[in-house]
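Sequence in, structure out. First:
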Amino acid sequence: MAVMTAIAIGSLALGAYQTYRAGAAAKKSGKLQQEAADSQADLSDFNAAVADVQAEDAVARGAEEESRFRAGVRGMIGKQRAGFAAANIDVGYGSSVDVQADTAFLGELDALTIQTNAAREAWGYKVQAEDLRKRADIARKTGVMLEATGRQNAKTAYLQGATSLVTGAANLYQTKYGLKDT
């Protein structure tokens, strides 16, 4: 009988230890999942910062291209004036003024198109950056939830182990002393 009692106690202890280890593993798993989510969030934050830089770069490149284009239009108008003057046409009167005005007008439209395209490109990067920041926020919140779930699973496993120990001890006690339900 003593051998059977010792085996039963050993079995209870082993079961409780295994339940404790399962709880500890659940807790560790939750913590690791939170760390992974935090790492993913950090990566999203980094990518958002890169998108911000890309937006600033798009605006700067657009301004530079617009400036170069406007300079080219001014050069083209200058060539037109020189051509008119070489042909003995009054550059400040009549159709020569109209041609120069049309060139300036169309050049301004093209320059504004360049500016608008740069703004649209920058806007796309800003939207991307905001999306990445939201994803980072969601990843962090998910990580917190996973870590809390791991802790809760660990508590549940610890309680199951304690319940198993108490139930097993009660069964052993009942078997040893022959107690019956009253």
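Second:
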Amino acid sequence: MKGSEEPDGEVISSVPTDSGVYYTSHYWNDLPRVVAYISENCTGDPTKSWQSDFLERFCPDGPFAHGLFANCGNGWAERDFIDRGIVRKATAFDYAHDLLDQAERERGDRDITYFQADANRVDLGTDLYDLVVNVGALHHVQYINRMAAQLCRAMVEGGTLVSYDYVGPGRNQYSRAHWRQVRAANRALPAPLRKDRLRQPHLPTMLVSDPTEAIHADLVLDSLSRFFTMTEVHQAGGGIAYELLTHNPKFFGEVPDGEVAAELDVILAQDRRLGAAGKVPSLFAYYIARPNKAALGDASLDVFQAAEDARERWAARHRGTYTFAQYFQVQANRAFFAGLRWLPPRLHRWGLRLGERLSERFGL
């Protein structure tokens, strides 16, 4: 991670400098049955992905002329959109140099231009793109209100924004009621498929490993709605299935496929049922929006940017946290584990086990 000054020179933004925390292990959408489930939630057809749906409905007269891809990672999304015939030319940016190098190597002869930028500071220009694509990118943006305005300004009148992204709780800090549902679903699985180390995302660890992960995911749709007209929002689910399947090797080869398939159907049915009942949130969404260029001149919206700047200044002074409860959680965690350093090895190991249990039970 690297700190860099935010545009006003007062607030520090955290950005990943390499891909060490990305593209690791297995995620729920690496499973074909999950892909079909997501597709059905997004398009009504388990055989039609959201990309195919978008191509079919929004490109009847041919591809978009020029697309912008935010936080592009290794470049797979822009390559895919060009290869599908959704867009002719792409411009894409990311902060991680190694990901940009990989994207450039795999660009081939496609018309793609890459540049390096911090999403919290980038100037995207004015009236350049008729398409903006967000695939799992905006949930990493710290200054999300600023980014929403930047995207609106960068688009031409009548352009289209298409997104598939995580829209769940900020930094994956699920409510206790939500986590109880996840734990109950895990306990109900047969032992050979149960996730052995089901741990609620630990905020102090996230702040060290990747402070941008889902940093303001819960604010993305509201922020975009100030500068865009949201024309469609399709909830893709994941409230139960995402945590049970992601980083669970038992579903990725450790257990025979025949045993996995039946339990996958049970998990996904439960995911849909609890999501529809409002007992767990949908963690992912496919949505489409049009830029509202008039909003860029609306002075009444300045209050949101002022609030964002104040929020990030506060976080910079409080170890990257956004509430006193989060700050005390981080401080208590630091104090507990700092104390373990002085213990004899046997007590140190006991303390680590106790720390894990306390973290799971009380969120320390």
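Remark: The radius of gyration is 21 Å.
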